[in-house]
Specification:
- By secondary structure, the protein is an all-alpha fold.
- Helices cover 78% and strands 0% of the residues.
- The chain starts with a helix and ends with a helix.
Amino acid sequence: MQFIFTSLITTIIFLIIGDVFIIRKIINQKKKINMLESENETITMMYDNVRVFKHDFFNFVQALDGYSENNDIEGIRKMNEEILKELERLYPDARPALHFRSPYELLVAVVLSAQCTDERVNRVTAELFREYNTPETMLTLPQEELEKKIFSCGFYHNKAKHILSASRDILERFG
């Protein structure tokens, strides 16, 4: 079950990153060939790509539900591999904007990224992860202290609460 969850989260992250790169690619192509007639055209094109992305994602979730109902783990694995291969083919240079060195650091960075720029999150996590880069070390921080360290990311009270809660859950479930 953990594999399914990890695969689903990985796929969602790649799909979201892919969508951002699609929009950037369209804008860059339009600028390169100097055919940007209006902002409306660009916005329409972005909307169409997001709509296609959402449709594809909806189809993926429906297929995943079908595999889950039948306990077809191999089908889920195969679908996940196909999706990842296609994303790698379409976006060979895709890299996340958030800086992290471990899955735990990515989790914390993603929590902090809600309603915050990636640049700000990277500045905050660069300092935070020097000392607090594992669930164990994060839990040595009182919530009020963590709130001070992440204040500039906004919504610091809830983000601190969720980071500490996730850290506790990780240690309780996985040691």
